[in-house]
Amino acid sequence: KLFLFDKSHKGNTSTMKHLSHSGYPPFSIKDSVFFRDGVRRIDFVLSYVDDKDGERKQERRKVYEANLEKVGLELEIEDKSESEDGKTSFVKIHAPWEVLATYADVLKIKVPFKVNDIPDNSEMPMNWLSTPFRLPEHIMHPEPDFFTAPFNKSKSDFFLIDNKDTFFPPSTRNRIVRTTMTCFPAVTSCWKHCWVARIINVSIIYMYFVCMQSRYWKRSRDANCESERFSLYKHWAGFLSFFKEQPLNLVRKYYGEKIGIYFAWLGFYTEMLLFAAIVGTICFIYGFLTYDDNEWSKEICSEAVGGKIVMCPLCDKKCGYWKLNSTCNSSWQSHLFDNVGTVFFAIFMGIWVTLFLEFWKRRQARLEYEWDLVDFEEEQQQLQLRPEYETKCTNRKMNRITQEMEPYLPITSKCARTCLSGATVLFWISLIIACIIGVIAYRLAVYAAFASIMKDSPTTHLQVVGPFITPQLATSVTASCINFVIIMILNLMYERVAVWITDMEIPKTHLEYENKLTVKMFLFQFVNYYSSCFYVAFFKGKFVGYPGDYAYMFGSKLRNEECDPGGCLIELTTQLVIVMTGKQVWGNIQEALVPWLMNWWGSRKARSHPESLYSRWEQDHDLQGFGQLGLFYEYLEMVIQFGFITLFVASFPLAPLMALINNIIEVRVDAWKLTTQFRRPVAAKAHSIGAWQEILNGMAVLSVVTNAFIVAFTSDMIPRLVYMYAYQPEGEMNMKGYINNSLSVFNISAIPPANKPEDGENPFWFNSSITTCRYRDYRYPPGHEKEYSHTMQFWHILAAKLAFIIIMEHVVFLVKFFVAWMIPDVPSDVRARVKRERYLVQEYLHNYEVEKLKVQLSQNTHDECSCAPMIYPSLPKHEVLSECL
After folding, report:
1. Would the pTM count as exceeding 0.70?
2. Which of 8, 127, 566, 680 has its CA 20 to 30 A from that of 512?
3. Where are the bilayer-spanning segments (predicted)?
4. Nearest alpha-carbon partner for 8 in 35, 48, 30
């Protein structure tokens, strides 16, 4: 077991000689990423476990492996007797140059043909400021910049090929091999398309993966093997590198463009969050510094004003009368987020989200050029059908693009499946809404209990925590926690349902599959995560009624919730903090801890073996699979976070700061788990973030509307401004008397018996001398000819709110469109480089063909002249030469 040579290699002196000269002892061949000869690189690994149906599957494996060899791939088998668990067999695959060149030509993979001769003017004047954040030059730019062109096998001497073994980077090699393994024609009629996927679907081959280059904690001992995994772990996955830039070129080279573009987007998003976090923190500090200027909170807390205002009960029977100064602390807390800075920050975030999306387009365009994705088209992926589509669709028709017969799904079946899928999605969204209604019912029912318990909290109860806990706060916190638990449970359930209904629709291509799943998952999670925030922001306290004519939820005995006299904004902040923070913390724990525990448990037997007996392919086999939808869930997590910091940011300016801290950790956690806990995914190309770009654009537009409504209807900013400029007595520009002005009066004797507090629920200070109570609204007092109807101030405030929404939306949208128009999607230097490259490709190919034609003509002339003396034997030598010319 030390040497692991099969019968054909036992005693092979040339192999032993090669190993002895390679710098490591022969037994460490198991830790190598080469075949037993130490020369041929392992590009792909297939693994399988024999079961009770082994003979039939073994026969199919032989046919499949024979077809792999027919297309030029080289195989080497590790029998199960040589594996660590004694059950798993491995098939190692190597792609020789001929196969790589052939399929690179088919896939039109771009390769270098000339060193870039355009001067790089991208250096900033004060570039030295970023030096501490930069990685070593050999990590960021391991090779010079080249002009590239699609590879052509017949013109291989046109390209800069120094070493055929390293000409194609690792990500390109495994992508070519994956294509080779899945797209060759089979000899039997029942296995005609996409062999690997079908064989895996029926468990003939258990798993396929790409070998890692080395262990992540140390460099490879083989001088011929790169240690890019070690470099990524050291300079990218370590948390101590959180302030360093990401080695995106190395990530792209090792994992492929699709994973590289995700980390590029995540890094850019995190960088842009820094500016939003700074401005949001400044707005929060402004609210803290203007703490003492908060005139309305002073009135609420003072005994002369808030101590004498008796408020009407907030629920039926179980709630008693209460004094306004009992909400003193919540009023002060609300000021931290509900101030003039809130309006500025809401407008700023509307502009920030536009700058983020526009600058990302420019960054993406630059990556497209640098990573040779300018001419990459998704149609190449669309032409490759999903194996499940081919299996389930028995009807055939002519493909207009390929001019070949291919399976298709009849329109009637497609419509039926789409309708069933839509009905399922609507059912689950209705289930979410039902759960939210259940949480609202909990809030209404529990509030009465909290109010009954805490009716004397400022003086007698809860002295341990003081008067900071109010019935509103206790209800809001507990309801938010319950809502978060429901969100996570529904999320886990719906993930399975979304995959099931997407499979049921039988999408034609992998791209179509991802897009359908993206829409379903985002729509569900949008409702799941944001519905409770929408309720608090736009519905709570808006349909309450007034004493004597309260509104009830669906005709039940549960009275609709009222907002705190300080406003509903503090409750929206509480809801946002709990859901957003809980999701981020849970997500990071789940992403980091679960794969680590599963790998630790799965490799528990192998830990007792020496490293030399635990081969590289076995170690990778025991890691977790990244999966085809691995990046999908990463994007989804970040897009949901993007919604939190844009849709409701007016209620919590510190949300971008929390997101920034989370994303700094997220980048390193994702890098760590990809480098250490998951098998190396098969490289794939992508020139953008796909459907997520349109989703982000839609959320950016929606965020302007939601923040405008939050400032207008959830915050008390507009009523205060209307009071200060239109209703302030004696023409003074201050907020004195605002609290008394914003509360209406109701006659206690007019309260219906069903709404009156039960005996013992009223506080000790309440007596028969108190004849009126106050409530939050703008209505005429009792005895007025328009008793309890809305005052003119109410309509003035409503008009001011609508005017603010219209003005803010138009201003922000105007600035957004102007900024988007001013910033081109593609930088000018990138456009110049693309044009220069296309020009050079044509020029160099033309010159190449001309030179080739000259050589051919010269060769033909030489051949004819060599035959001339036989054709003209009577002519002198110089005349023969003349005849030849």
Report:
1. yes
2. 680
3. 195-211, 262-289, 340-360, 425-453, 473-494, 642-665, 695-714, 802-823
4. 35
